[in-house]
Each structure stands twice: as structure tokens, then as C-alpha cells.
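At this stage, I put together one protein's amino acid sequence and its C-alpha cells, which the following lines show:
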Amino acid sequence: MANNTNTQIEIIAPHNIEAEKAVLGSMIIEKEAIEIALDTLTDNDFYSTAHKIIFREIIDIYDKNKGDVDLVLINDNLKSNSEITRLGGSSYLTSLVDTVVTASNIEYYAKIVKDKAVLRELEHAGRKIIGDATTSSIDDVGEIVDKVAQMIFNITEKRVIKGPVNISDMINPALDNIEAIYQNKAQIPGVPSGFADLDKLTGGFKKSNFVIIAGRPSAGKTSFCLNIAENVALLHNKSVLIFSLEMSNDELFNRFLCSQARVASDRVRNGFLSKDDWPRITTAAGKLKEAKIFLDDSSSLNVLEMKARARRLDSEVKGLGLVIIDYLQLMSGKTGRSDYRQQEVAEISRSLKIMAKDINIPVIALSQLSRNPEKRIESHGRPRLSDLRESGAIEQDADLVLMIYQPGMYKQDGIEASSPISDAEIIVAKNRNGKTGTINLRFFKEYTRFENATK
């Protein structure tokens, strides 16, 4: 008969006591070693409780005595500490110094300690994930997935140690970049929008830039962004990822199809297609088949999930050119409370800015404008930066703010508002690294397409 016994395996967390002792010994004998250790480690990176205490004491003495640290001071301050006494008191502190002959290997030892700390965090995260997965209800799955992604991301961020960069190390890459731009004056340095005057003014969408495209309802925000995606994918053969929180993938595709075919969208929706429409539709479908445009209409994504999907797609397609989010006010932050909506939008805006920087890809987010433009009769509804809805943080975080303005929407006689073709302006209201100004375009309402204005 089988003997059923529960065998509990004790898991020893990853650590390297000898490396920890070498770090502390190096810090005691060499001031420069303290500075190197401070740049890499915190007290929580040490496995031994006593080593955490000693590390904190060394840093405290270093701070108070302007860099002068010695064994006598450390021993005097820690002689009553029970944890140090348990290990041998002053003799243990002396043994730390005896562990190292020179402090020149401090970086090597510090890296070992840091890596072991990361492994411990991974082990802790793994146990937390297993616990949550086995005890939570099916309704909590989405929340658990978010927590897991955040935990892993936080651990990854801790391992990346980025310190100051000497400006001399930046000279050659910067000059190479300037030379490349000089040799290719006609080439847009960023991702081109496909609108000539806009690209000339902005230089395209730069890597890691956070871009806001804003407008009142029905001003053409989604149409303009889809036209940009179309141009980026078809004219410049770059991949584009679109997160649509408002429209379905099918609706987006129909917009792409009508725009590319120059066929009125209502005729496609209602089935009243002419004989001439079909060849244009099939030709447009053939072009779109080759376009590297990826649509995601998941309605409940947060910034962390968007970042994860963008990173994965970037790896799969060997370089993602652009990320578009339609639109910012439909996103929810961590609080999820409407009474804190301004703080929530500020949090979302900041997170999108960080996302663009982390994935090193331009991120475009559509944003609503307040009703203020409609109240300004003297300027015929022309928008301003202050009209960005729900948070001033959007204006602050964005590298580039483009505002869509269609004068015909505000004309009293309504003649241009009912016209199938209208004038449109793209107001470059903010450009962190360049000029501001206004670009004139034409908007073809029937198939929701912006085009360069003829001169």
C-alpha cells in the first residue's frame, strides 16, 4: 500500500554571501567603492539581514562624514546591534575587510549581488503568481494578468542600470546622424505622415515621441490618423499598430477601404455600389493586403497591456514604425474613479509618454477637445492648446500636438459644412523640437480622406 506523505521542499532563495561580504569589505577600505556600490545597489539587494544593516551604516557614515569611513566608526555604531553581535561583532566586521585584497573588483561583486537580488524577486513573483492563480476566481483573471505583467516589468526595470553618459561619448553618433540627414536632405528624419507640408514642418514622427492629435467630435480625428497609418504602411512600407477603443476592426477596415478606393462610405455600407466602384474597391483591397497595418479593437486595454503587445509585435515584424491609440479619453487608469478623472487622465497621459520612450517608437494618441472653441465666435472655433480636454498634463507630456480644424463646421451659412469637399487645417500647436504653424489640407467627407492641398 502506497504511503501518502506530504513532502514540503524548502526553497532556498538565490544569494551569494561571499560576494556580499566582498562588496562590504571593498566599501570599508575604499571610498570610491562606496560610490560604485551606491550606483548599483540598495540595502534590499543584500540577502543577509546583517549585511543590509552594515551597508546602511556604511552609507550613513559616508554621508555624515563627507566620505570618511573606517572600521572603528562602523564597529562603534554597530556594537550594540544584536544581529551583528550574533555573527561575532567586531571580529566579523574585521573579517569583511580581510575578505578582499583590493577594491578594484567592486563592480564585479556588486553585479553578482544585484543579479541574485533580481533572481530572488523573480522567485518571489513566481510564488505570488502561483498563489493568485490557484486562489482567485475567474473574474479576477484580467487583474492577475495585469499584476504579473507589472511585476515582471518592474523587475526588468530594476536590472537595467542607466547612469550618466559622458557627452564626449555622444559626439560621434550625433555627428553621424547630422551627416546622414545632410546627405539626404529630402528624406524625413522621422516616420513620415505622408502630408508633405506637415512633414516639412515637423520632420515626421520621431522615435520615442508622444504625439497628440486633437479635435472636436466629427472634426476628422480618426480619419486623419487612419490616413497617416495608410501613408506610413503603403508609401513607406512601415508597420503600424492601431489600438481602437471606439470602433471595431471591421469598421476601421471599411474606412481604410473607402479611403483607398475613393468610394463613398455610405454606398459601401448600404450596398448601392456603381459599376465603377467595384474595380476601385478590388484594387484598393489588393493594396491593403500588402499593408503592414495591425488592428486591435480590445476595449479594456490599459497602457501596460498596450506596451506589451506593441513590444511583441515590434519583435515579430522586426521593427514597428508607429503606434496609434483612438482615443485617450476612452482609456481608464489605475483608480477607475470618475471623481478623480483629471488625475486619471494625467496618469494615462504620463504612462503613454513613458510607453513611447520605453518602446522607442512614436506613439500617437487621439484626444477630445473641450467645448471652448465653439464659444469663441471671434476666432470661428479655432482651437488652442488650453482646449485639451480633462487635463493640462496632456499638453505638458506631449512632444507634438496637432489640432484638426475645419472652418466649414463653424460657418453660419452652412454651405461649406454640407459640401463633400472642404478646407481643413492641421494646427501644429506644440512642437518640442521644432517650429509651430498651420498646414492646409483638403478633406473628402464622402470617403473620409485628407489629402495635401493643391497649390
About this structure: Residues 13-160 form a domain with the DNAb Helicase; Chain A fold (CATH 1.10.860.10). The chain has two domains: 13-160, 187-452.
